[in-house]
Fold these 3 entries.
Entry 1:
Amino acid sequence: MMTAGRTAGGRRTAGGILSGLAVAVGCVLFLGGFVWAALLYQPYTVPTDSMEPTVNAGDRVLAQRIDGGEVRRGDVVVFTDSTWGDLPMIKRVVGVGGDKVVCCDADGRLTVNGEPLEEPYLRSTGPASPMEFTAEVPRGSVFLLGDRRNTSLDSREHLTDGDQGAVPESAVSARVDAAVWPAGSFGMVPRPAPFAELSGGVSEPGPLRPLSLAAAAGVVLILAGAVHGPLARRAERRRTAGTGG
């Protein structure tokens, strides 16, 4: 008698071999993508509404673990600094060491080293900041603002500190790549184009998308290989019934 995936002599059929290979490759892709993502990324819950509309209060985000020296302007980062309350916070980097950050110019825009920035991610449509300020960012530090500038407590609140509101690069632990929960908020966090024109450019996207695609492809292969047996048995029963008739 021939069973699904095997000949009458007990040897595996081509379909059986392919289904087993699909399951094996699927497991490698799924587990590899999942484990690699777990090593590179850390989940966080957004604590406040200061980064709306990019991410909202209560959203779960995935942030790539990075060294502070990898930070670029425009990055949305997770950092912890004792001056800011010694709790993980999420803000956008608008200035790095050596920059002069000023707000606002005659058109209400933020300027970095004299270059005005269009900031499409801001919550409000008015000036880039309701308060005017000038800050020179010390070397090895970053200047951070929220996207909801009217309510965000950020570097502007610490301008009278010794570092003019900047925090050390070493305080940064991760860069936000995507919002993943709730389902309606899912989306990648883009690198802002305006910062790409400044020296140093913007950071490259993390590997979250290819890792997610690898894990998804693994699931598809596992399911495809798993259903081969039942489908083959059903086809065999139909052939047997047809022969008997």
Entry 2:
Amino acid sequence: MGQSAQLTRRLDRVDATLARMRALDAALPERDGIAVFNRVYLAVTEAVDQRLAAGRFADPRAAAALDVRFAERYLAAVDAAAEGRHAPACWRPLLQFRRHPGVRPLQFALAGINAHIGHDLALAVVDACVTLACEPADLEGDFDRVGDLLVALEERVREDLMPGPDLLQIADPLTHLLGAWSLERARDAAWSAARALWALRRLPDVAEEFAQRLDAAVGFAGRMMLTPLPD
């Protein structure tokens, strides 16, 4: 299959991923924690799709592969929960607390971003490298471009979902709870984890243990981010 055909096929998969997210957006209650994160992630994926169409990535084929592999991990977690199967540990706090009345929309959004960046992104890089028969270094430029979109979006999410000045009794503990977490640092850690997993690929038992510990650590952080706050 030629590169042009491969790109077309991968862009079709980006479109299918967007359709899945839009269907979730239409089906879920607005206040559901997965719905809150899904709206955020849908905006990111639409922005990536627009940049792919505009030729803004150095290697559109690689960027599309990374985008799809990344999204598939989130959607697989949602499917697992819907089917009564165990989702990865990083997603379990959001799935368990998604309807808790004491958890604010900003907490839901950032807990989802934490799970997706802190765990899924590293594994998606490895998945994309296997698909493309390349090394992580070959994806670094497009990884950074997608990461820049995520960082910009995180700033907008905080602005849009942070309670206003009339709700300082909520905003103060929320600021304390979430202020120490940084998407930029999480993205850097994800890149290091991806490189480590790639280096460990010939030691599958060690790689699996590393991935499990990463999953558990990200899940623990997500549980803290979803601490219910007083009204």
Entry 3:
Amino acid sequence: MTRVALIDDHESVRLGLEAALRRDGHDVVYSGVSVSAHLAWRQETGAAPADVVLLDLTLGDGATITENVVRLAGESAVIIHSVADRPASVREALAAGAAGVVSKSSPLEDVLAAVRTTAGGEPLNNVEWASAVASDREFADAQLAAREREVLRLYAAGLPLKAVADRLGIAYSTAKENITRIRVKYTDVGRPAPTKVDLLRRAIEDGIVDAPAES
């Protein structure tokens, strides 16, 4: 059973999601208004991290998108549940480690499907996400996020993905999502990297790993 946390400062949204998720067989372990409140609850109760966090893009406590995602993404897969017409904010969430985005205008079944997909360790490549990225060409030219560079450095150097996850202290699914996002970013700028050898070439080109010494 997938453990899901809901973080949204609109109670009506949380109540609707909570009911739908439970009908779909998920365990809603937390529902609240901020990331800080969620983390405080975890500390007080000793609760394990949720498998998936549905997070509103902007909350009323003043925390930034990056702050919220970074505080959650190391232990849980984060799905942004918000409007999908703010590409700069979506780009910021992805760079911080979010797994994807589902629009609040989407049918509930789309949200449930996103939770199931993400909980299964698969990347979330939905229409809202693709549209937001495609409409913002700055994203295509952006450098890899710091965590993505670390994952690429170890993976391109030859470590299996499970070993990369263990070395960085992150979940295997998180490492896999990072590799998926890295491939998408390179494809967007016209430098596709469908294989591990291609990723090594890109990492060498970008100075992430050193080129092998010539014998």
